[in-house]
Specification:
Elements: E1 5-16, E2 19-31, E3 36-40, H1 47-53, E4 62-70, E5 73-74, H2 80-84, E6 91-94, H3 98-101, H4 108-120, H5 124-137, H6 143-147, H7 156-167, E7 174-178, H8 186-203, E8 206-210, H9 214-220, E9 223-228, E10 231-237, H10 238-243, H11 248-255, E11 300-302, E12 305-307
Parallel strand pairs: 3-8, 3-9, 6-7, 7-8
Antiparallel strand pairs: 1-2, 1-4, 4-5, 9-10, 10-12, 11-12
Length: 313
């Protein structure tokens, strides 16, 4: 039995007053154990929805079909009680905003050891010792002081590191990180990047990284998944995707970066209530053919990665 996470025909929609939002469409993929897998794409591409579906952290109006298999167990079929035995202990979640993740009225230390004591039934003394050790692992020079501090007393980068310490206190097998650099300045982004590079070494955990930060994904990911309008357009080794992107959308994302050509993608992402026929990207694609407007291409293997585009049919 391996530790991979398998997604099989996963489709996610949301019922709203305006209509059904088709957030994720028939995704088949494997998150490989021992790797950092990055999911990239514009806002609304479905990367956060797909990632959080692994732990069923979606809104009550969501509808998920398909299967998410881990160790021969379909996570989508578990009861809430069964899933709570997995959340935090087996698969941990690092939310995108440390300011919102921490309770401002509780010390950092108390929040770090909360899950540890809940799952492992440890004494308060054992919890404190473990919590201080966690902060030492994440390079806090005064772990005892940080343990007794409140969130507002830490810098943005320190809060992110403390959040990682809290999320990995039970040595989870998988870590799901949602937009860890969102809203951070360049200096703190660099610091957080180092945190995630260290995270894999410290915990030996496999990581699913949801990010709009392509430089972060390029720096630390082994595999990258490119999502657009809830559909996988390209996936494969990070080095190949960033050095030689195949899909026009991937090329556009990379060229839009400030340290590249700073060329914005033309047009806007489609409405997830009224998706275009054919390739989801064809209304914005300068390479489109007639068939692109009529029929959606299948994912096919090209030069060591998978791509969904009629250019390679």
């Amino acid at each position: 039995m391996d530790n991979n996470v398998y997604l099989k025909d996963v489709t996610i929609s949301f019922k709203t007053k305006a209509g059904t939002v088709h957030a994720v469409n028939h995704v088949d993929m494997t998150f490989n154990s021992g790797e950092i897998t990055g999911m990239i794409g514009e806002t609304g591409s479905g990367k956060s929805v797909l990632g959080m579906s692994v732990l069923r952290l979606l809104a009550a109006n969501s509808l998920i079909t398909g299967s998410i298999i881990y160790k021969n167990i379909d996570l989508l079929q578990l009861t809430e009680k069964e899933l709570n035995q997995i959340r935090g202990k087996i698969i941990s979640f690092i939310p995108q905003n440390p300011d919102a993740a921490f309770d401002p009225t509780m010390t950092i230390g108390k929040q770090i050891i909360e899950g540890y004591r809940y799952h492992d039934k440890k004494t308060k003394t054992a919890g404190i010792s473990h919590g201080i050790g966690q902060l030492q692992n994440y390079s806090f020079h005064e772990p005892q002081k940080t343990f007794n501090s409140y969130p507002f007393q830490l810098s943005g980068g320190m809060r992110q590191r403390a959040l990682c310490a809290m999320s990995t206190t039970l040595s989870p097998e998988w870590i799901l990180a949602d937009e860890p650099t969102k809203g951070l300045d360049a200096i703190i982004r660099q610091e957080v990047s180092q945190v995630f590079q260290d995270l894999k070494k410290i915990t030996n955990s496999s990581i699913i990284l949801i990010t709009h930060d392509l430089r972060l994904a390029q720096r630390i990911c082994d595999t990258v998944l490119v999502l657009y309008a809830g559909t996988v357009l390209e996936q494969g080794p990070a080095g190949k995707i960033f050095d030689e992107p195949l899909h026009p959308y991937t090329c556009g994302l990379i060229d839009a970066q400030p340290h590249k050509k700073l060329l914005p993608l033309s047009g806007m992402p489609p409405s997830l209530i009224d998706l275009p026929t054919g390739c989801k990207f064809h209304p914005r694609c300068s390479c489109r053919k007639d068939i692109c407007c009529l029929t959606e291409p299948a994912l096919q293997e090209v030069n060591g990665r998978w791509v969904r585009c009629w250019k390679y049919a």
